[in-house]
Design brief:
The complex is a heterodimer. Chain A is mainly alpha-helical. Chain A is built from three helices and no strands. Chain A is elongated and about 85 Å long. Chain B is built from eight helices and no strands. In chain B, helix 7 packs across helix 8. The chains are: A mainly alpha, B mainly alpha.
């Protein structure tokens, strides 16, 4: 593709998709949406905490069971 | 009298710069009020930038929030001495790129975004829509480069900074975009 072809393609593209007007602005204040987004993530983080804690507890139990096999019946008794 | 006015203007400017740099420093340390100030100062510019790339009002608004969310999360990495706009623009460009990647090519890109009276009436609506459709099928990386450099006619350096690549890389991407677009149009029976 030579330079002339490129120029033709550029012109065609500009005619098909004209540039966006420079004074474009959002239709609403986006700060409330930003706050909602931040709150949602905060809630998600706190909801993730118990899941993380469950896994840590399970890992600890498996560790104890592997290190002290004699403790398995005791653990099972308390489950 | 003029000298007095100049001095006052300089003082005012200096004060504003200090305040602005204070806000940026506070933001870097995770201050929410500073983040809100920055958000309100820059949301319009970020929205405008995103609209140029995605050409969809609703998506640009969502992406503005997404961009500022990423900015908020990365506050500790922000370097106030480098300025906020360029950094925000890079983050916005990456957010737009992610959005373009998750969308399959559809288009009909909306026509009501244009600045007035720049289109040539001789170009038939059908051809314009085919060009828009072919453009929407380009790989997102090439599409963003072509959008900013060809459609929006931004300087190569500005596009390169936003994309995080060299000016030469931008030129290569634009060239590849135009070549792919031409091939696509030729397949549709349009000889540019």
């Amino acid at each position: 593709m030579n330079e002339q072809d490129q120029d033709r393609m550029k012109k065609l593209l500009q005619q098909a998709l004209p540039p966006v007007a420079e004074d474009a602005e959002p239709t609403r204040d986006l700060w409330p949406a930003m706050l909602r987004r931040m709150d949602r993530k905060q809630v998600a983080k706190t909801q993730l905490l118990p899941v993380w804690f469950d896994w840590a507890l399970l890992a600890a139990l498996v560790g104890v069971a592997a290190a002290f096999p004699a403790s398995v019946p005791v653990l099972l008794y308390y489950l | 009298m003029n000298r007095e006015n100049d001095r006052k203007a300089q003082e005012r400017e200096g004060r504003m710069q200090n305040e602005s740099s204070n806000v940026l420093n506070d933001f870097q340390h995770g201050d929410l009020a500073a983040f809100e100030t920055i958000f309100r100062l820059h949301q319009r510019a970020v929205y405008g930038w995103l609209l140029r790339i995605v050409r969809n009002h609703a998506a640009a608004e969502d992406l503005t929030v997404e961009t500022f969310w990423r900015i908020h999360n990365a506050h500790a990495c922000f370097d106030p001495s480098q300025g906020f706009e360029g950094w925000a623009r890079r983050i916005a460009t990456h957010a737009a790129l992610d959005w373009l990647r998750t969308r399959r090519a559809e288009c009909e890109l909306p026509a009501d975004l244009s600045a007035p009276a720049t289109t040539d009436p001789a170009i038939a609506a059908e051809i314009r829509s085919k060009v828009a459709l072919a453009f929407s099928r380009l790989p997102p990386k090439l599409r963003i480069a072509a959008t900013l450099a060809v459609i929006e006619e931004l300087p190569g350096k500005e596009v390169a900074e936003a994309l995080g690549v060299s000016v030469a890389a931008v030129k290569v991407r634009v060239f590849r975009a135009l070549r792919l677009l031409r091939k696509d149009l030729e397949r549709q029976g349009i000889t540019p």
